[in-house]
Amino acid sequence: MKKQLLFFIAFLWFGxxxxxxxxxYIQDSKEAFTLESIKNADFKKxxxxxxxxxxxxxxxxxISNLSSxxxxxxxxxxxxxxxxxxxxxxxxxxxxxxxxxxFQTESNATIYxxxxxxxxxxxPIEVQKTSxxxxxEKGSFLFIGFYYGFAFVIILINLxxxxxxxxxxxxxxxxxxxxxxxxxxxxxxxxxxxEVSQKIINSIEVFxxxxxxxxxxxxxxxxxxxxxxxxxxxxxxxxxxxxxxxxGCTFLITDNHVYYVIMELFVFTTLIYYWTVALIxxxxxxxxxxxxxxxxxILVLGISFYVTKLLGIPVLITINQLKFGGFFxxxxxxxxxxxxxxxxxxxxxxxxxxxxxxxxxxxxxxEELKKTSESPVSILMEANLxxxxxxxxxxxxxxxxxxxxxxxxxxxxNTVKYHVKNIYDxxxxxxRREAQNIAISL
Length: 442
Fold this sequence. Notes:
This protein has a six-stranded antiparallel sheet, with no helix packed on it. A three-stranded antiparallel sheet has the order 8-5-11. Strands 3-10 form a two-stranded antiparallel ribbon. The chain has helices spanning 2-19, 130-165, 168-187, 190-193, 198-223, 226-229, 233-254, 257-280, 286-311, 319-370, 379-383, 387-397, 402-409, 413-427, 432-436; strands at residues 22-28, 44-45, 50-51, 57-64, 70-75, 82-87, 90-92, 101-106, 111-117, 122-123, 126-129. The protein is elongated and about 105 Å long. The chain is an alpha+beta fold. 29% of the residues are buried. It is 62% helix and 12% strand.
């Protein structure tokens, strides 16, 4: 009985081992192989996705020991769009309206696939029973729908806050998130699903990455208030934006993948720059700390997903892992933007109340001085307030809010906030006693 049991276990073990699908590959850099000659080639065992960076060109794959007749072979990389599958003496055409290049076979005979990588040589091969593949695709679409639904809600919330509070940071973040989501749509193969041509996809991808840089600049500058700390930082980033657009357009014109790689390096140089600036300002306030943490995850995952495969660096993550980082970043940064707005509102309200108080005291002093024959000295001249600042100071003394001032002067709320801060600094007001010593003329 023992021997029979051991024999049965051994049969199952070796039977499973022998029936396991085998995948092997060979690079055909000179494109010398034909379907007949490739059968005698010295293939290497395929253990993980080929990741040879710029070493692109033609790769042959051999798939044998198929356990089922009905199989689905997919290459889940939207940049691989040229491949031919041979089984026996027949050519199997790819299935239409799939997210990635997909083939279905009706035999368990040995398969040969000729793949042409015109971009980076990242070639994942997935072989599954057709029934298993269909179930997996349903799960993938469920997760895809959940992610984009969640992103859409976050975008709407930020647009709602922008409309209600006139705070452009919400608008910039909504646009930034829209561009990131568009990039994910491309990587998910959604455009291929709707049979958009590869040339159009390349154009969308280039301008999408350019707009990611633009809106990341606007969002980070507004959120971190970089104009108060590094007012010239925008000039540096504008140069980077120019390089992104230059190399992106050059790639579209020449179809030389090297220019795309250079463009992508400039894209992530911009993102790394803003994260580094936030790290320098880490101790300034809480919402800067939140920015550093939230941005770190999406930045590291983005580099691992987009950049490493271009250079052939074996640090690969999946699009779903990148989306999980996106979930975390969306939730954290959305709350951080709201917290930042409330904090600034409290600070501005306090500053406005103080300036209103000081303005009333100044007005009272001015009235007292007018009763005497002494010639008063204008505090506005001593403080060197601009005409705009004098007008805003006058409106503040009337008890108007920043929003009301902005509407009356036809300027943005942020501009009002900027002038209010300058008034506070220029008057050098710290106590009532100091204010009483100021001789002014209004």
